Amino acid sequence: MSNATITVLPGDGVGPEVTAQALAVLGAVEEKYRHTFTVHERRVGLDAIEAEGTAISDDTFETCAHSDALLFGAVGSLPAGQTRSGGPRPEQALFRLRKEFGFFANLRPVRPFESLYAASSLKPEHLKGTDMLFVRELSAGLYYGRLESVPGKPSEIRRTARGTEAVDTLLYTEEEIERVVRAAFEIAAGRERKVTSVDKANVLSSSVLWREVVERVAADHPTVTFEHMLVDACAMRLIRTPADFDVIVTENLFGDILTDEASMLTGSIGMLPSASLGARRTESGMFGLYEPVHGSAPDLAGQDRANPVGAILSAALLLRHSLGLEQEAAAVEEAVEYVIREGCRTEDIGEGVHAVVGTREMGRRIVDRLRQS
Ligand code: NAD
Ligand code: IPM
Ligand code: MN
């Protein structure tokens, strides 16, 4: 029996809507398998800025630190391309959690369901057999740059004799590369034993170092095959032959962009879950942060229209990686796949389905299936 403590950080926009469904699923797991989860709910993002003056308060951070796992919704409240001028930014909550808890490996599985092939932008014959796992480096790289810089901090825009300019730096230490690459090889050893390391070594020094480290780590894993791939070619191959990939390991920003692209193989960005892990262990697994890959989707917020599957599958990853509850995680994944196969769809994956359902109904059907199975 598990007695885990989970801190829930619903955040902004559709974050609270999809998180509520993930929590309902965890509640059903608790009941069915007789676990006791202690849940603390706290504010992050714009919600926290408005109520507490900062994107994540020290108090909330402390609560997180004393948990076995964190379930995160989404932060940010503005449509893509728009930014708030001055003051704290919602996304800083994520950067603080990732950096201070040392979550350097962000796992993003991409496994299109056969019943959803029609919802994808690709032809079904290209999707067959696709089952890949991105291991996105999450605590360094272009997001953090020089050690003193803070992601998204406007002070990096400066006035010089040449005019106004802005600078971002892509810095990796050997150790930062090695720990995430090792994680990728270890995971691949338990899958199809293939690693694709994605970089831009024809241009970037950090990628040249990245390749050197990959070669060294690969030598310790003779049963795992590996290849280097340039990031632009990878963007193309993901669409051309997605089934060729197994584990993909890459730099922070490359991983951010490629996973949004890869989400289209599953039919919607609303389908993808993620797990952010570091070195800290819990009683039965790893301490981790679990969140859907999508953002706060301001265009859908408050309308019961968001797909809760990415959040629910993130809860499954939480059960597996932080609580060591493999059977429960698999049951949640089965319930999601079953409900979708039966034709229950939110509008983003609803092509060809006559009556699409809302966020709450989708969650309710998944909970029902879980209870019956
Ligand atoms: P977004 O992921 O919020 O939305 C992109 C598109 O996908 C929109 O058309 C939206 O309607 C759709 N979409 C997103 N989630 C969906 C879901 N669950 N079901 C169905 N459709 C869904 O990205 P954006 O619009 O570029 O960013 C909006 C805000 O979210 C920004 O402030 C951004 O910084 C933030 N953001 C936060 C996170 C996070 O908290 N981890 C991730 C990405 C973006
Ligand atoms: C993600 C998001 C974040 C990122 C944003 C909100 C800072 O896009 O988790 O994929 O870029 O890491
Ligand atoms: Mn992203």
TrEMBL record:
Keyword Amino-acid biosynthesis: yes
Enzyme Commission (EC) number: 1.1.1.85
Cofactor note: Binds 1 Mg(2+) or Mn(2+) ion per subunit.
Isopropylmalate dehydrogenase-like domain ranges (all copies): 5-366
Pfam families named among the record's database cross-references: Iso_dh
Alphabetical UniProt keywords: Amino-acid biosynthesis, Branched-chain amino acid biosynthesis, Cytoplasm, Leucine biosynthesis, Magnesium, Manganese, Metal-binding, NAD, Oxidoreductase
Residues binding NAD(+), per UniProt: G295, S296, A297, P298, D299, L300, A301, G302, Q303, D304, R305, A306, N307
Molecular function GO labels: 3-isopropylmalate dehydrogenase activity
Source species, domain of life: Bacteria
Pathways involved: Amino-acid biosynthesis; L-leucine biosynthesis; L-leucine from 3-methyl-2-oxobutanoate: step 3/4
Residues holding Mg(2+): D232, D256, D260
Residues reported to bind substrate: R98, R108, R136, D232
Cellular location(s): Cytoplasm
Annotated catalysed reactions: (2R,3S)-3-isopropylmalate + NAD(+) = 4-methyl-2-oxopentanoate + CO2 + NADH
Principal location listed in the UniProt entry: cytoplasm
Listed cofactors: Mn(2+); Mg(2+)
SMART domains reported for this sequence: Iso_dh
Annotated site, Important for catalysis, chain positions: Y143, K200
Function noted in UniProt: Catalyzes the oxidation of 3-carboxy-2-hydroxy-4-methylpentanoate (3-isopropylmalate) to 3-carboxy-4-methyl-2-oxopentanoate. The product decarboxylates to 4-methyl-2 oxopentanoate.
Family label: Belongs to the isocitrate and isopropylmalate dehydrogenases family. LeuB type 1 subfamily.
Subunit and partners: Homodimer.
Protein name per the record: 3-isopropylmalate dehydrogenase
Organism field: Streptomyces yanii
Lineage: Bacteria, Bacillati, Actinomycetota, Actinomycetes, Kitasatosporales
